[in-house]
Design brief:
Shape: globular
Number of strands: 15
Radius of gyration: 21 Å
Largest sheet: 9 strands, mixed
Strand order of the largest sheet: 14-13-12-11-7-10-9-8-15
Distance between the termini: 43 Å
Strand content: 25-35%
Mean pLDDT: 95
Low-confidence stretches: none
Number of helices: 9
Length: about 325
């Protein structure tokens, strides 16, 4: 059994406790949070789990093999570093850290210590994203042309980090996964704050690639409706992924276009194809349980998890550049 210690019992922490408690070959042995009321709630559900107030108490325990961090973004690097130096495997709630340099340092420590470090990009474990990944890998939709995602809702403002670190991180991790780590060469982002906090609550990110692929991500905390919709265009087929849909989350469109150029090079013809629409069945298993099982398997078997540290590095690299672009009113930031 892998002894698990969970630090942070705010919005996401209790979900982690529940899923690691159900994971294969894992046992949640202690949790830590400075809020006594949060600890009491966990105690009422899991009376055998030890309650601690400080993260360092978790790191010092000999019966803890792995630490799961569900703390504010600005604490991820320091806490993950302390846990690794204490000889613990680490799973960090997204994003892995706040800069590329921080992620590289954590990776280096993990290598030196022979430890796993993983980021919780939960959506990669959903049946819908797994299906999209298989469609791309099999070549069914052809070459990726575009990725256009909208993730908006009302509320859950973060007073310290812009909306891209909260919402866009999901879409960046999904694109990174389905494209097998396709790296953008530049990023541009614009956004605005509508509060005195000065934190962007609505933002638009555009990713540019060496080829004709383009990705665009819309994120907002100030929408009257909740939308979680992604359009993926391929050279053969197109996909709509709507995570708000209870059952028909993916629709595959056998639609596209082709361009023919006649002898007159100043004229061309576009032929449009409108084919069938198919709705594949996707698995309905809980994604966070998949994260927990993957982390434990990585520890016990040395397997590379789906949401691995390179995924965390790629996402943070783009987020850091996008934040720089936000602060410079959309200036294009090179990533090469």
């Amino acid at each position: 059994m892998v002894g698990i210690g969970i630090v942070g019992l705010g919005y996401w922490g209790p979900n982690l406790v529940r899923n690691f408690n159900a994971a294969n070959q894992a046992e949640v042995r202690c949790v830590a949070d400075r809020d006594a009321s949060r600890l009491e709630k966990i105690h009422s559900l899991y009376p055998t789990v030890d309650l601690l107030q400080e993260a360092t108490e978790v790191f010092q325990r000999s019966d803890i093999d792995a630490v799961v961090l569900a703390t504010p973004i600005n604490t991820h690097f320091e806490l993950a570093k302390m846990a690794l130096l204490a000889g613990k495997h680490v799973l960090v709630e997204k994003p892995l850290a706040t800069s590329r340099a921080e992620v590289l340092e954590l990776m280096d420590i993990a290598d030196q210590k022979g430890l796993q470090i993983m980021v919780d990009h939960t959506f990669l474990y959903t049946g819908a994203v797994q299906k999209i990944k298989s469609l791309v890998d099999s070549g069914e939709i052809g070459d990726l042309h575009y990725f256009d995602s909208t993730r908006i809702n009302l509320g859950l403002f973060n007073p310290n980090w812009s909306v891209i670190w909260d919402l866009a991180v999901h879409d960046l991790s999904i694109f990174d996964y389905i494209s097998s780590g396709k790296k953008p060469v530049a990023v541009s982002a614009t956004g605005v704050s509508h509060t005195q906090m000065g934190i962007e609550d609505i933002a638009y990110i555009t990713l540019f690639f060496q080829d004709s692929t383009i990705a665009h991500i819309t994120s907002s905390w100030i929408s009257p409706v909740k939308i979680r919709k992604t359009l993926i265009g391929g050279s053969k087929k197109m996909v709509i992924y709507d995570d708000v849909e209870p059952t028909e989350k993916i629709k595959i469109y056998d639609s596209g276009f082709s361009v023919s150029t006649p002898e007159d090079m100043h004229r061309f013809y576009v032929d449009y194809r409108f084919g069938d629409i198919s709705i594949p069945k996707v698995a309905q298993t809980e994604a966070l349980l998949g994260v927990a099982n993957d982390f434990v398997a990585a520890i016990l078997e040395g397997k590379t998890p789906i949401s691995n540290r390179l995924s965390g590095l790629n996402v943070v690299t783009v987020l850091e550049a996008a934040q720089q672009s936000l602060q410079q009113r959309g200036k294009t930031i090179s990533l090469v």
